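Next comes this protein.

***
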Amino acid sequence: MNNLSKINITFTLLLLSAITGFSSNISMNSKPYTNIIEELRTEMQREGMTSISFAIIKNDKLILSDALGYADRNRNIPASTDTRYLVASISKTITCVALLQLYEQNLFSLDDDINSFLPFAIRNPLYPNNKITFRMLLSHYSGISDVNQDKLDLYCYGYDCTMNLAEYFDNVFSPDGLYFSTQNFSKNKPGTKEDYSNLGMALAGYLVERISNQPFDTYCKDHIFMPLGMTKTEWRLADTPLNELAIPYSVEITNSNPHFTFPDYPNGGLRTTAEDLSIFLRAIAMNGSFNGIQILKPTAIDIIKTLQFGSQKQALTFYYSAINGQSVIGHNGSEMGVTTEMYFEPVNKIGVIILNNDDDANLEKLLSLLFKYGEEF
């Protein structure tokens, strides 16, 4: 290709970027930019999606990030790469990393009894002599159940819930607590059966607080977000500019302020952009390091990727899935008005993030398209 041709292609890409508002992080050897955008638009229209914001990484590089649709469809405000979304259960991966940072400091062992670090005792009443460990919490093998908590409506609309993690868990696990129930535990002996637990992962966040002597949200900002340069990532609604937030669209949300929080927020309350989250994913993909900042050692990343308790897919909070016939590891999320996906393929270190502001959106085809783009880049 001669220099004039290269200049013309570059000019065309920049022009497209100016017209559409999309990124120009495009390789001349990759699938044409306009083709992937058109395929994404077609799939979004077919599924009736309000918006997506997405990012593709390869090794430590962000190779494409864009947004389509509306952050606020009632006011015709388009989504952009600066739009922040509630990422729901993807939040758990941050909680896992925060706890493993403390593990790296030899402050606990993954197979320690969590009761040694709590102001109250947590035991499954059916198995009072069996300890619940950090590994069990992070792998959903603790026997701590969401059955009772799922019956409660603890959402706070338009503000951060005033109940802190200490108060919340005292109410959950103390016999005289407001949310105490024997249904906070399953019939499974700890360590024997996988049972996905939002309550257990929120408890992991509280353990970060207990061990670090810092509020959980402050710890994450000081030790993960700020070191990595994730300047658009927050646990607290009060710290998040409302004009940068995508509206979550759900028939379940009837409050005039659609932005909500919940007291057990370490299991799903993070708000961020796809680009900011891609920094975190790149650090995980690159053995715990991004731009010279090491948030976890390679040995801890290996632990994250190791299957637990004989499971065929569940690692430490992260789990394995298959996309385009390739084994990937990551996490998804679903809340009122939110559907999210974040995975990377560990051999070639290609990763994809998709954030969406609809209930139960089917993002499977979009994931496939974006991973294919990354493979061809």
About this structure: The radius of gyration is 21 Å. DSSP finds ten helices and 13 strands in the chain. Residues 3-20 form the longest helix (18 residues). The longest strand covers residues 61-72.
